[in-house]
């Protein structure tokens, strides 16, 4: 008999008997094992050649103890070769090959691992990973047919996880199942939203003669500004860091509609390229954004004014998660693929600020300012493509931030045409609220299970 696919040895049957057995490098010997007295066996009358892999299917059995042995899984007149790895569906046990010239057996070692969730909890503070671990546990417990023989994207991935012999190996594969940029995309979008609001706020300050530079000309009604930002977020514990490069343009127009009232409208367009900085995952993404803001202000006195702004926008995010799931027993690739994401986000922002200028000396100005800004990013749900049944189905999520900030600006008049301005200090209090999304790990012939992050 020649095996280049899957040869199953069921525990409910008498030992299978063949004259010869040749298992090539693509072959799998799938052994069902319920206990040391009930497991599949193969008796070969002649010679046996063992290559490929062995898969042990315990179906959640806990009837084994450390040091137990599945004796004579394969017997033959002469055995050559040896499977490159032993995979299994049990996180609790490892199966170690014991081979002689005429017998192939498996010795059992306990890993001290109970669930994927516990393994991740003990090695990580990342709640996304803990949630993914819970889903993998549910898939293991469901023990569907596709996962038993470790075939297919999801089944191979789960089998690689359950074949781990320590928590670190579990973590290495589970971390790759977390969502795009480890859930940081919303905060990248939020930063872009705040940056556009700051540009408009700078324009509002400048038309009152309180800007820090001559970037804007107060005598003109139209303004334009190139946008460039380079954000670098380092890893935060077990949360992946990222680099985000933004470039774009902001344009606007404003003017006095009454003696003390100014109104304006601004449009911003930008593109942000994001790459992770983690050693554990490889992700990249692109965010295309546009925002429109109505803004204005009212001067109570020449030195005291209130300013406001409000508007909305839309983001389109495309991303890639590069998956490279490894079998811990031999380092081979269990699954390699790319999960593609494409989704839209709606944004909203509103803010109000109060500032007043004091003149402690003729040529010195002090301007305290108090601002309150509200931001909201509403990501729509999406389903990843390109990664077979390892892709994520992600529900929508809404993130809100309320930012209260105060700052003190100081200015010195050097001449009739030259003023120097700068910050003396700034204090910001921020409250961010995230409505948790639902994420599903897709599985063929497996109930879709939610990941709460």
Automatic annotation (TrEMBL):
SUPFAM superfamilies: Autotransporter (SSF103515). Signal peptide: none annotated. It comes from the Bacteria. Residues 215-453 form the Autotransporter domain. GO terms for cellular component: outer membrane. NCBIfam families: autotrans_barl. This is Autotransporter domain-containing protein. It comes from Kluyvera genomosp. 3. The lineage of its organism: Bacteria, Pseudomonadati, Pseudomonadota, Gammaproteobacteria, Enterobacterales.
